[in-house]
């Protein structure tokens, strides 16, 4: 068959939007859109509460009200069909689904209960002092340097140290966690060229992950060991314990890396906002929530209809994928005053940067805690940030952040000395 005939057959089988649904022609996963997605998200919201993404033949929601409705109604909009574009209910899964993120109740409740207990606020608070000491020492070292890369030297280095220690991983080989996490979140989008390139070079990292998640390689007093202890108690299986260690690595690492990196970028770009946090570190957590709202760590993922239903006045069939653009909801001007303004004095606790409902990001508590600790440590030592070059975006199908952030941390002590 000629390429022309194949393309004609493909077009003939393309699904089209119902007449009442606005069509969006931009590709939300293109480098062009991802470089500055917010005008496109505004275009999508202005088109209507429910739109059709032409390139991927799928529905999408981007307003705050529509996004929260989909995410909080897990009976109507499930995750077990996969949180990427591929529908695991109608197509063979290309990978094994996550046993927390891509499973519905009651099985979801069983594994999530164990996971949430281990990463509970009470458990995390036991680590706070050690996490604080590590942040303070790391930032002191960066201040002494004339320049640094905020991503490599802090946003990545900090969780690769403290969180990987908490999980119980060996020290050698932790660099493999970065390409592994990149693959996990690329997989939540379409199987595009970005996904294929990431998958092609993943081999050594997957081998390392498979090895270190085994019980024999995890430190005894660690989150990983607690998961296996839960298996010993019969709460989960031992196979599930190993899978949950892997889930922990993606849920608690990349979310933190991108959140800290985005915070550094915001504080460097808006020095007057940093001055507010620096002078009143008690608002560090509030400032992180504003970072999450303004520059969301997650940008989008999918849910799937479990039955015929009406969404925003449109009748949807069962097994319809819906792209949920949480970063658009966090910039919705109908919900947030001055939505495109970064203000640490805002109280944006209702942001949906980590999702909401029963499938909200399982690692969000530790991401928030680590980011807050880093911001407080910065406030104690850093007068201001100087941008030393143009930040470089990291392109991923699901999360948004930076691959490089050239900075200088100017010490508060230096100011006093002058």
First and last CA, distance: 76 Å
Strand order of the largest sheet: 1-2-3-9-6-4
Q: In the CATH hierarchy, what is the class?
A: Mainly Alpha
Oligomer: single chain
Mean pLDDT: 93
| Structural domain tally | 1
- Backbone shape: globular
Give a quick account of the main beta sheet: strands, pairing sense, barrel closure: 6 strands, mixed
Number of helices: 18
CATH topology: Cytochrome p450
Structural class: alpha+beta
The fourth-level CATH homologous superfamily is: Cytochrome P450
Please give the share of residues in helix. 40-55%
Under the CATH scheme, the architecture is Orthogonal Bundle
Strand content: 5-15%
Radius of gyration: 22 Å
Number of strands: 13
Poorly predicted parts: 1-12
